[in-house]
Write a sequence for this structure.
């Protein structure tokens, strides 16, 4: 079977002749985008960047896959699907939750821990008659990078895409909150991630930060004590961050609720969440704060946030 | 008035592009039914059209076009308020479009055709490959009182598992990709007639072609609506053959060939297979 592999591919738009003499134009690869590939979108249109942060297995990729799956069924969160430069990438992360995979239970493949994250692109158009086209990039960064960011400030400052984020969604693993031996760590991880971002001054003014309890169906199914612990977690996070993050929001979602686990009618929260995340807000310019240029050896991924930052805000100085 | 017009047929393999062309040639050549477009003169080289129409008239399966057998046909037409004009239709292989999606490359010659085309017919078979989720299947099983597997560790043996491949993409995703490639290379607004081929297979569902497309391929449907500013579209259900081959061949042979053809747009039903082209070309 043919594999789509863009590692040796010529850049889109270039022409390559074959042995038979037919000349071909290379098309865009369709996979998840690297930071530099996102420029095909960001240089043309205002783009909303949603960063999904969280510990390993907290459900970051499942959220991305579920947003795409919902659009596959029809208009979602007030939007129609208007296109994507990473359709194959979306299809790949959805594969293990589909019948075609041969699996009997849905599964999401973990994002491969690498130095670089990837982005999924969606062009959307509101269902209203005068709605404009909107471009959204959804980040997929492995939980391991966020773990490193918690451990070392230097590693946190390398996550320069955060400077460009319109919304930072920090997922709290709802399944782990229901397990006695894991719930304290599940509670601590997201707090520590946001603390690290703030400590390293990675959250730009105007960016919205949200704590999102994922796998809500697990919490609901686990009963009163799990719901109580979720409530305490929220209170703890409120106390810890409210003063430092005035626009802090909380949300709860079940991106892929298990129908066998929750039998009652169940509001999974994803539609409201996506509608809110994609709503652009005016970003006030940052006064006197232009990020320092990354060092020459830094990878494209790390330069992404800085380049955008310079172009959109820093160049004013 | 248009003097020259080019229309492109786009579609994956086995979606009825050549069968449509064969039926169109029969209708135009016979000049015995009321159609939006009419033949004004014979083109110089009619050999390809005559070859495929012979197969169509005998109710055999029209052979699909391969990369090696691609041809461009020329039709001298009038009608639909357009005056007289020459329509060129390249009969391109479905493999070429498959190649675009799977190998992410487009021939330079096709890119040139695309630039000059004043309209596009996108063919889609009603036999849609879907990306059904396991959760949807489990929900259905649960609703029917069965016991679906709860989410958790999978108990499948490795032999049951199928790895992801671009060939296995759902139909609507492949079609959206084809249209995205097209839009990237078209400078001006284009008309697109989506033809759901073999319409006889699904007409008993009682849905209009647009409703059918929106139910079976919601992602494609949204894409078309959301890009209406660049791609004005409509949806036809067309049965160019008239029935299923070879099982219904005898019944089809007994019919007047012109009556075999079924064309539906919205609530309008008829036998005029020139309608999708007339819609694309209308001033």
């Amino acid at each position: 079977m043919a594999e789509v592999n863009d590692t040796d591919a010529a850049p889109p738009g270039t022409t390559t002749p074959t042995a038979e003499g037919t000349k071909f134009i290379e098309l865009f690869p369709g996979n998840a985008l690297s930071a530099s590939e996102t420029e095909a979108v960001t240089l043309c249109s205002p783009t909303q960047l949603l960063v999904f942060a969280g510990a390993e297995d907290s459900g970051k990729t499942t959220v991305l896959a579920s947003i795409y799956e919902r659009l596959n069924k029809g208009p979602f969160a007030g939007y129609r699907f208007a296109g994507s430069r990473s359709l194959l990438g979306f299809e790949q992360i959805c594969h293990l939750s589909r019948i075609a995979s041969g699996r009997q239970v849905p599964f999401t493949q973990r994002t491969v821990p690498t130095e670089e994250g990837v982005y999924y692109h969606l062009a959307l158009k509101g269902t209203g008659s005068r709605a404009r086209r909107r471009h959204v990039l959804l980040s997929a960064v492995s939980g391991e990078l966020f773990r490193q960011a918690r451990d070392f400030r230097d590693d946190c400052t390398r996550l320069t895409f955060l400077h460009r984020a319109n919304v930072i969604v920090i997922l709290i693993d709802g399944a782990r909150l229901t397990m006695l031996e894991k719930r304290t760590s599940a509670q601590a991880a997201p707090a520590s991630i946001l603390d690290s971002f703030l400590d390293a001054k990675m959250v730009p003014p105007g960016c919205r930060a949200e704590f999102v309890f994922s796998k809500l169906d697990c919490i609901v199914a686990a009963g009163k004590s799990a719901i109580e612990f979720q409530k305490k977690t929220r209170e703890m996070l409120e106390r810890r961050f409210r003063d430092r993050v005035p626009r802090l929001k909380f949300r709860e979602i079940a991106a892929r609720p298990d129908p066998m686990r929750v039998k009652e009618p169940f509001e999974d929260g994803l539609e409201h969440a996506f509608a809110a995340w994609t709503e652009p807000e005016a970003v006030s310019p940052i006064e006197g704060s232009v990020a320092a240029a990354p060092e020459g050896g830094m990878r494209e991924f790390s330069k992404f946030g800085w380049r955008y930052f310079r172009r959109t805000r820093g160049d004013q100085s | 008035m248009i003097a020259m017009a080019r229309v492109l047929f786009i579609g994956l393999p086995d979606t009825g592009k050549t069968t449509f062309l064969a039926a169109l040639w029969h209708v135009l050549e016979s000049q015995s039914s009321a159609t939006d477009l009419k033949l004004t003169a014979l083109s110089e080289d009619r050999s390809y059209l005559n070859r495929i129409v012979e197969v169509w008239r005998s109710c055999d399966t029209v052979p699909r076009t391969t990369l090696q057998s691609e041809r461009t046909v020329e039709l001298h037409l009038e009608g639909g308020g357009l005056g007289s004009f020459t329509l060129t239709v390249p009969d391109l292989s479905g493999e070429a479009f498959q190649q675009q999606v799977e190998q992410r490359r487009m021939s330079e010659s096709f890119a040139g055709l695309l630039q000059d085309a004043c309209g596009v017919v996108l063919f889609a078979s009603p036999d849609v490959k879907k990306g059904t989720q396991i959760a949807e299947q489990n929900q259905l099983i649960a609703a029917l009182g069965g016991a679906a597997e709860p989410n958790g560790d999978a108990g499948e043996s490795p032999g049951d598992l199928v790895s992801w491949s671009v060939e296995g993409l759902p139909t609507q995703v492949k079609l959206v990709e084809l249209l995205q490639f097209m839009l990237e290379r078209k400078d001006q607004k284009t008309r697109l007639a989506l033809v759901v081929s073999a319409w006889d297979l699904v007409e008993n569902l009682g849905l209009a072609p647009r409703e059918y497309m929106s139910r079976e391929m919601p992602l494609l449907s949204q894409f078309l609506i959301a890009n209406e500013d660049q791609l004005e579209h409509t949806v036809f259900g067309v049965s160019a053959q008239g029935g299923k081959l070879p099982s219904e061949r005898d019944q089809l042979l007994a019919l007047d060939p012109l009556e075999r053809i079924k064309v539906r747009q919205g609530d309008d039903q008829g036998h005029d297979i020139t309608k999708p082209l007339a819609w694309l070309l209308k001033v």
